[in-house]
Protein backbone atom coordinates (compact mmCIF):
# COMPACT_ATOMS: atom_id res chain seq x y z
CA UNK A 1 0.00 0.00 0.00
CA UNK A 2 1.31 3.45 -0.89
CA UNK A 3 0.66 6.53 1.18
CA UNK A 4 -1.81 9.01 -0.26
CA UNK A 5 -0.77 12.58 -0.94
CA UNK A 6 -2.51 13.66 2.24
CA UNK A 7 -0.79 11.11 4.47
CA UNK A 8 1.83 12.90 6.59
CA UNK A 9 5.31 11.48 6.26
CA UNK A 10 7.03 11.35 9.64
CA UNK A 11 10.29 13.27 9.94
CA UNK A 12 13.34 11.06 10.27
CA UNK A 13 14.35 10.50 13.87
CA UNK A 14 17.51 12.21 15.06
CA UNK A 15 20.38 9.96 16.05
CA UNK A 16 20.58 9.26 19.76
CA UNK A 17 24.30 9.09 20.47
CA UNK A 18 24.03 9.12 24.27
CA UNK A 19 23.57 6.01 26.35
CA UNK A 20 21.57 6.09 29.56
CA UNK A 21 24.85 6.08 31.51
CA UNK A 22 26.18 9.06 29.55
CA UNK A 23 22.98 11.01 30.15
CA UNK A 24 23.12 10.22 33.86
CA UNK A 25 26.78 11.29 33.99
CA UNK A 26 25.93 14.63 32.36
CA UNK A 27 23.04 15.36 34.71
CA UNK A 28 25.18 14.49 37.73
CA UNK A 29 28.44 16.17 36.71
CA UNK A 30 27.38 18.88 34.26
CA UNK A 31 29.45 17.59 31.35
CA UNK A 32 30.14 14.51 29.27
CA UNK A 33 32.72 13.64 26.59
CA UNK A 34 31.74 11.91 23.35
CA UNK A 35 34.85 10.27 21.96
CA UNK A 36 35.37 10.36 18.19
CA UNK A 37 32.01 11.94 17.38
CA UNK A 38 33.52 13.73 14.37
CA UNK A 39 35.61 11.84 11.85
CA UNK A 40 39.22 12.69 11.18
CA UNK A 41 38.22 13.84 7.68
CA UNK A 42 35.67 16.24 9.16
CA UNK A 43 38.20 17.57 11.66
CA UNK A 44 40.78 18.07 8.91
CA UNK A 45 38.32 20.08 6.82
CA UNK A 46 37.23 22.20 9.79
CA UNK A 47 40.82 22.77 10.85
CA UNK A 48 41.94 23.78 7.36
CA UNK A 49 39.07 26.28 7.12
CA UNK A 50 39.94 27.72 10.53
CA UNK A 51 43.63 28.00 9.70
CA UNK A 52 42.82 29.80 6.45
CA UNK A 53 40.48 32.23 8.24
CA UNK A 54 43.05 32.83 10.97
CA UNK A 55 45.88 33.42 8.49
CA UNK A 56 43.89 36.26 6.93
CA UNK A 57 42.07 37.35 10.11
CA UNK A 58 38.80 36.99 8.21
CA UNK A 59 36.24 39.06 10.14
CA UNK A 60 34.49 39.01 12.46
CA UNK A 61 37.19 38.17 15.00
CA UNK A 62 37.79 38.80 18.68
CA UNK A 63 41.34 39.69 19.70
CA UNK A 64 43.04 38.88 22.98
CA UNK A 65 43.40 42.60 23.61
CA UNK A 66 39.61 43.04 23.15
CA UNK A 67 38.99 40.70 26.08
CA UNK A 68 41.74 42.14 28.25
CA UNK A 69 42.45 39.15 30.47
CA UNK A 70 45.65 39.11 32.51
CA UNK A 71 48.66 38.79 30.22
CA UNK A 72 46.88 40.02 27.09
CA UNK A 73 48.55 42.69 24.95
CA UNK A 74 47.67 46.13 26.26
CA UNK A 75 46.51 47.41 22.85
CA UNK A 76 46.40 46.49 19.18
CA UNK A 77 49.59 48.46 18.72
CA UNK A 78 51.47 46.46 21.38
CA UNK A 79 53.46 43.29 20.64
CA UNK A 80 50.96 40.50 19.93
CA UNK A 81 48.14 43.07 19.73
CA UNK A 82 46.51 41.34 16.77
CA UNK A 83 46.46 37.87 18.32
CA UNK A 84 43.05 36.35 17.55
CA UNK A 85 41.18 34.71 20.42
CA UNK A 86 38.03 33.74 18.52
CA UNK A 87 36.91 33.47 14.92
CA UNK A 88 33.36 34.71 15.46
CA UNK A 89 30.08 33.86 13.71
CA UNK A 90 31.34 30.45 12.68
CA UNK A 91 27.86 29.31 11.63
CA UNK A 92 27.86 31.97 8.90
CA UNK A 93 31.33 31.12 7.56
CA UNK A 94 29.90 28.47 5.24
CA UNK A 95 30.87 24.86 4.72
CA UNK A 96 32.10 23.03 6.74
CA UNK A 97 31.18 25.12 9.82
CA UNK A 98 27.54 25.73 8.91
CA UNK A 99 27.11 21.98 8.50
CA UNK A 100 28.85 21.09 11.77
CA UNK A 101 26.82 23.63 13.76
CA UNK A 102 23.66 21.87 12.59
CA UNK A 103 25.01 18.31 12.66
CA UNK A 104 22.42 15.76 13.75
CA UNK A 105 24.94 13.93 15.93
CA UNK A 106 25.39 17.01 18.10
CA UNK A 107 21.77 18.17 17.92
CA UNK A 108 20.54 14.66 18.72
CA UNK A 109 22.78 14.32 21.76
CA UNK A 110 21.80 17.70 23.18
CA UNK A 111 18.12 17.07 22.43
CA UNK A 112 18.42 13.96 24.60
CA UNK A 113 19.88 16.02 27.45
CA UNK A 114 17.41 18.89 27.19
CA UNK A 115 14.42 16.70 26.44
CA UNK A 116 13.27 18.59 23.36
CA UNK A 117 14.41 19.71 19.93
CA UNK A 118 17.09 22.39 20.05
CA UNK A 119 17.84 25.82 18.66
CA UNK A 120 21.37 26.84 17.70
CA UNK A 121 22.32 30.06 19.48
CA UNK A 122 23.92 32.42 17.00
CA UNK A 123 24.63 35.04 19.68
CA UNK A 124 26.67 32.91 22.09
CA UNK A 125 29.81 30.93 21.33
CA UNK A 126 29.19 30.22 17.62
CA UNK A 127 32.94 30.45 17.12
CA UNK A 128 36.29 28.81 16.63
CA UNK A 129 38.32 29.24 19.79
CA UNK A 130 42.02 29.70 19.08
CA UNK A 131 44.60 29.54 21.84
CA UNK A 132 47.99 30.89 20.82
CA UNK A 133 51.37 30.38 22.42
CA UNK A 134 52.74 33.47 24.21
CA UNK A 135 49.70 35.75 23.81
CA UNK A 136 46.86 33.27 24.32
CA UNK A 137 45.64 34.11 27.81
CA UNK A 138 44.27 31.92 30.58
CA UNK A 139 40.57 32.06 31.39
CA UNK A 140 39.56 32.03 35.05
CA UNK A 141 36.72 30.07 36.66
CA UNK A 142 33.33 31.10 35.31
CA UNK A 143 29.92 29.98 34.13
CA UNK A 144 28.94 30.79 30.56
CA UNK A 145 25.47 31.79 31.74
CA UNK A 146 26.91 34.87 33.47
CA UNK A 147 26.25 37.10 30.44
CA UNK A 148 23.43 35.16 28.81
CA UNK A 149 19.76 36.14 29.09
CA UNK A 150 17.25 33.31 28.81
CA UNK A 151 14.12 32.28 30.65
CA UNK A 152 16.15 29.48 32.28
CA UNK A 153 19.80 28.55 32.50
CA UNK A 154 19.19 25.38 30.51
CA UNK A 155 21.65 25.61 27.63
CA UNK A 156 24.29 23.10 26.56
CA UNK A 157 27.48 23.84 24.66
CA UNK A 158 29.34 21.58 22.26
CA UNK A 159 33.16 21.85 22.20
CA UNK A 160 34.81 19.96 19.31
CA UNK A 161 38.58 19.46 19.49
CA UNK A 162 40.21 20.03 16.08
CA UNK A 163 43.69 19.27 17.42
CA UNK A 164 44.74 17.37 20.51
CA UNK A 165 43.86 19.28 23.69
CA UNK A 166 46.10 18.76 26.70
CA UNK A 167 46.89 20.49 29.96
CA UNK A 168 50.00 21.89 28.28
CA UNK A 169 48.16 23.62 25.44
CA UNK A 170 45.24 24.86 27.51
CA UNK A 171 42.48 22.26 27.51
CA UNK A 172 39.34 23.03 29.49
CA UNK A 173 39.11 22.19 33.18
CA UNK A 174 35.68 21.64 34.76
CA UNK A 175 34.32 21.48 38.29
CA UNK A 176 32.08 18.38 38.34
CA UNK A 177 28.58 18.97 39.70
CA UNK A 178 29.01 22.74 39.86
CA UNK A 179 26.01 23.31 37.56
CA UNK A 180 23.81 22.40 40.55
CA UNK A 181 25.37 24.90 42.96
CA UNK A 182 23.83 28.19 44.04
CA UNK A 183 26.51 30.61 45.21
CA UNK A 184 26.09 34.06 46.79
CA UNK A 185 27.18 37.11 44.81
CA UNK A 186 30.12 37.84 47.11
CA UNK A 187 31.94 34.73 45.86
CA UNK A 188 32.34 36.36 42.45
CA UNK A 189 34.42 39.32 41.29
CA UNK A 190 33.12 42.20 39.19
CA UNK A 191 33.54 40.13 35.99
CA UNK A 192 31.70 37.18 37.57
CA UNK A 193 34.77 34.99 37.88
CA UNK A 194 35.12 32.94 41.05
CA UNK A 195 37.19 34.90 43.57
CA UNK A 196 40.29 32.92 44.49
CA UNK A 197 40.89 34.81 47.72
CA UNK A 198 37.94 33.01 49.36
CA UNK A 199 38.61 29.71 51.12
CA UNK A 200 35.32 28.13 50.03
CA UNK A 201 36.12 28.91 46.38
CA UNK A 202 39.60 27.46 46.68
CA UNK A 203 38.12 24.27 48.13
CA UNK A 204 35.68 24.11 45.21
CA UNK A 205 38.44 24.68 42.65
CA UNK A 206 40.46 21.89 44.23
CA UNK A 207 37.83 19.45 42.94
CA UNK A 208 38.41 20.48 39.32
CA UNK A 209 39.60 18.05 36.69
CA UNK A 210 41.07 18.59 33.20
CA UNK A 211 39.26 17.37 30.09
CA UNK A 212 41.92 16.32 27.57
CA UNK A 213 40.54 15.64 24.10
CA UNK A 214 41.70 14.08 20.85
CA UNK A 215 40.67 15.49 17.47
CA UNK A 216 37.05 14.53 16.88
CA UNK A 217 36.16 14.31 20.57
CA UNK A 218 33.25 16.49 21.70
CA UNK A 219 32.77 17.88 25.19
CA UNK A 220 29.16 18.73 26.05
CA UNK A 221 28.78 20.97 29.11
CA UNK A 222 25.96 22.75 30.92
CA UNK A 223 25.96 26.54 30.87
CA UNK A 224 26.20 26.62 34.68
CA UNK A 225 29.19 24.27 34.89
CA UNK A 226 32.23 26.16 36.15
CA UNK A 227 35.15 25.83 33.78
CA UNK A 228 38.51 27.45 33.11
CA UNK A 229 41.52 27.09 30.83
CA UNK A 230 45.20 27.70 31.32
CA UNK A 231 47.56 29.38 28.88
CA UNK A 232 49.06 27.50 25.95
CA UNK A 233 52.58 26.44 26.88
CA UNK A 234 53.34 24.70 23.56
CA UNK A 235 54.54 26.08 20.24
CA UNK A 236 51.34 25.46 18.24
CA UNK A 237 47.94 27.14 18.10
CA UNK A 238 45.03 25.13 19.55
CA UNK A 239 41.71 25.17 17.63
CA UNK A 240 38.26 24.22 18.99
CA UNK A 241 34.80 24.66 17.40
CA UNK A 242 32.24 25.76 19.99
CA UNK A 243 28.46 26.11 19.64
CA UNK A 244 25.58 26.48 22.13
CA UNK A 245 22.04 25.08 21.98
CA UNK A 246 18.76 25.51 23.88
CA UNK A 247 15.20 24.23 23.78
CA UNK A 248 12.22 26.01 22.14
CA UNK A 249 10.57 26.45 25.56
CA UNK A 250 13.55 28.47 26.83
CA UNK A 251 13.16 31.81 25.10
CA UNK A 252 15.95 34.40 25.03
CA UNK A 253 14.81 37.49 26.90
CA UNK A 254 13.63 40.39 24.72
CA UNK A 255 15.97 43.30 24.01
CA UNK A 256 19.10 41.42 25.08
CA UNK A 257 22.13 40.18 23.19
CA UNK A 258 20.67 36.69 23.48
CA UNK A 259 17.63 37.66 21.39
CA UNK A 260 19.46 39.87 18.89
CA UNK A 261 19.47 37.29 16.07
CA UNK A 262 17.03 34.61 14.94
CA UNK A 263 18.17 31.16 16.02
CA UNK A 264 17.45 28.20 13.73
CA UNK A 265 15.85 25.01 15.00
CA UNK A 266 18.46 22.40 14.13
CA UNK A 267 17.02 19.20 15.58
Automatic annotation (TrEMBL):
Record keywords, A-Z: Dioxygenase, Oxidoreductase
Question: What superkingdom heads the lineage?
Answer: Bacteria
**Gene3D superfamilies per the record?**
q2cbj1_9rhob like domain
Sorted alphabetically, which Pfam families does this protein's record hold? PhyH
The EC designation for this entry is 1.14.11.55
Presence of keyword Nucleotide-binding: no
Translocase keyword on record: no
* InterPro entries found in the cross-reference section: Phytyl_CoA_dOase-like
The entry lists its GO molecular-function terms as: dioxygenase activity
What is the official name of this protein in its record?
Ectoine dioxygenase
Source organism (scientific name): Ralstonia condita
Amino acid sequence: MTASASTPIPAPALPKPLSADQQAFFHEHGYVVLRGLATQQECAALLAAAQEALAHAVPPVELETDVGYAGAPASREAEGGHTVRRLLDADSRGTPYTEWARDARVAGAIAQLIGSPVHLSRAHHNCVMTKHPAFGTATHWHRDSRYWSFARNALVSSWLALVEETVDNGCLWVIPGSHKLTLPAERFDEKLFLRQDIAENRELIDTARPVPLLPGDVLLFHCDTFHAARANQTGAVKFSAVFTYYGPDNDPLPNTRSSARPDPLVG
